[in-house]
Amino acid sequence: MATVSENALRLIRSHAIDAYQADQFYQQGLSCFGSDQLFAQWLTSSNAYTMGQAPINALSAENGIQYLTDLMYRMQGDNYQP
Predict the structure, then answer these.
(1) Helix (H) or strand (E) segment spanning residue 66
(2) pTM of the full structure
(3) Which of 17, 36, 48, 75 is the most exposed place for a label (fewest CB within 10 A)?
(4) Which domain of life is it from (predicted)?
(5) Nearest 5°: phi and psi at 42?
(6) How far is CA 82 from the centre of its chain?
């Protein structure tokens, strides 16, 4: 499992299927969480939004980036506070 001290972009690129989508996802994550560190922490921590799993686990799925992108938009709409 990845550690929080790892760069979020490196984590995403190591798990994502498409590099271009990975970069876009990273930019959205920075916008949502405000920092690389908070984004990396969210990616590697289990939470209720991802049914107790770490979001990083979804990135290697065929639609994983889209799933997590949609999830971050919903979290922002819920006034999510990381």
Answers:
(1) helix 64-77
(2) 0.82
(3) 48
(4) Bacteria
(5) -65, -45
(6) 12
